[in-house]
Amino acid sequence: MQDLDTSNKYSLNYEVYKIKVDDILKIEILSESLEASLIFNQKGLNPNSTNNKESLIFDGYQVNSVGKISIPSLGSIYVEGKTIDEVREDIYKIIVESGKLIDPNIDVKLLNSYFTVLGEVQNPGRHEFLKNNMNILEAIGMAGDLTINGKRNDIKIIRDIGNSNVVYSVNLTKTEFLTSDKYQVFSGDIIIVNPNTTKIKNAGIIGNSGTLLSLLSFILSSIIIISNK
User: Fold this and answer.
1) Do 96 and 117 belong to one domain?
2) Is the dihedral of CA 180, 184, 190, 193 positive or negative?
3) What is the pLDDT of residue 47?
4) Which residue among 25, 32, 54, 214 is buried most deeply as judged by most CB within 10 Å?
5) Each residue's pLDDT tens digit, 36-53
6) Which helix (H) or strand (E) holds 193?
């Protein structure tokens, strides 16, 4: 952010994530009557479950190929394209209207949020996160920061929007990305950091030097052979 002015304020507008197929949700339904709410909770039915992330994912509700989850005693609920709050409200409405519970407390969380970073970073690969709002700077930090060879003015973000891949370009040398939709990172995003011009040129020089060395060696050998005749 070479044009950063410390006296400026930047308004950050995070969009609310909408659930997609294969997302895994943690759903807990509680009420004053523990026994009445127990039938809704998969974890409650599994006494061997622990609170680590792996077990939570195993006991979670995975969105199937048609965008639904299946909750015990409630059946299938369509969640694809909805926000976490909307899913919470839908479940609350179904339970109350069915008369199963009077005023349940419902907790819904997305468990398998992740992004993938490729290219000129210290730790490329898939990185998972649990926070609601992730941004590009935090994502790069989780990947160990850019290498000295990373192209900072043209980082690519590939995002799945409505079953189509949209490619964004982010210029980290200008502060304008702070107030754009490129600042936020969504689950499933792929971040690509290409090599800068210096590395590309160096790679070319190394390749040309090898070729040139081989050629010179061939010419020198030829000269020696001819001289000895």
Assistant:
1) no
2) positive
3) 47
4) 25
5) 677 777 554 454 555 666
6) strand 190-193
pLDDT at 164 over 60: yes
**Which residue range(s) make up the domain with 168?**
113-195
Q: Mark which of 88, 110, 132 sits at the end of a domain.
A: 110
Helix (H, G, I), strand (E, B) or coil at 188: coil
Query: What span, in angstroms and rounded, lies between the C-alpha atoms of 183 and 174?
Result: 12
Q: Answer yes or no: are the C-beta atoms of 22 and 56 closer than 8 Å.
A: no
**CATH number (domain holding residue 183):** 3.10.560.10
CA 83 – CA 61 distance, rounded (Å): 15
Question: How far, in Å, CA of 87 to CA of 68, rounded?
Answer: 11
Distance CA 156, CA 182 (A): 10
Q: Which SS3 state, helix, strand or coil, does residue 153 take?
A: coil
Structure tokens at 107: 């907790």
CATH number of 87's domain: 3.30.1950.10
Each as own residue / partner, the long-range contacts of residues 29-38 (CB below 8 Å, 24 or more positions apart, any chain) are 29/91, 29/95, 29/101, 29/104, 29/105, 29/106, 30/104, 30/105, 30/106, 30/107, 31/101, 31/102, 31/103, 31/104, 31/105, 33/101, 36/100, 36/101, 37/101, 37/104
Report helix, strand or coil for 24: strand
Which token pair is 129? 């996160």
pLDDT tens-digit map of 64-103: 999 999 988 889 999 999 999 999 999 999 999 988 888 8
Separation between Cα atoms, residue 72 and residue 83, nearest integer Å: 21
